[in-house]
Amino acid sequence: MTGRREHDAVREARDALVILVAAAPAVAVLALLLGIAGGDVRGWAEWVIGPVAVAVLLLGTLGSALLLADRVGARLLRARPHTISRVPLIAFALVAGLVLVDGLPTTWPIVIGFGLVCAVLAAVIVLGALLGTH
3-state SS string over 71-128? Predict the structure, then answer.
């Protein structure tokens, strides 16, 4: 057991999330510039920023779920989640984001669901941190 330190799977998911969040402002500026140049700011924003925003939700959900699985698995089962490198995680999240944005407005319930699950998992993690559990 490694104590309070998170496992590699959690770290990779967190790093992938941080990379996408850090890239989001540059992506937004790129979408704005392409939209202005092409005369369709809304279209460019939807297709450039949308997949990144959905990918951030997906990775936030994954990272939170992995952290909870890591903590519970380590305590109860002495097991750890399998590690996947951040590059495939980012690629899969962006492809899933693109597919979900392509399906809008039909896929809104899925996107909203991921947002709600991400918020609930984050609240559970924050509550656990406040209560001093690990």
Answer: HHHHHHHCCCCCCCCHHHHHHHHHHHHHHHHHCCCCCHHHHHHHHHHHHHHHHHHHHH
Q: Give dist(CA 50, CA 46) in Å, integer.
A: 5
Packed helices 50-72 and 8-38: angle between N→C axes, nearest 10 degrees: 170
Reduce the DSSP state of residue 32 to 3 states and report it.
helix
In order along its 134 residues, the chain shows pLDDT tens digits of 444 455 788 888 889 999 999 999 999 999 999 999 999 999 888 889 999 999 999 998 888 888 888 877 777 777 777 788 889 999 999 999 999 888 888 888 998 988 899 899 888 888 888 887 55
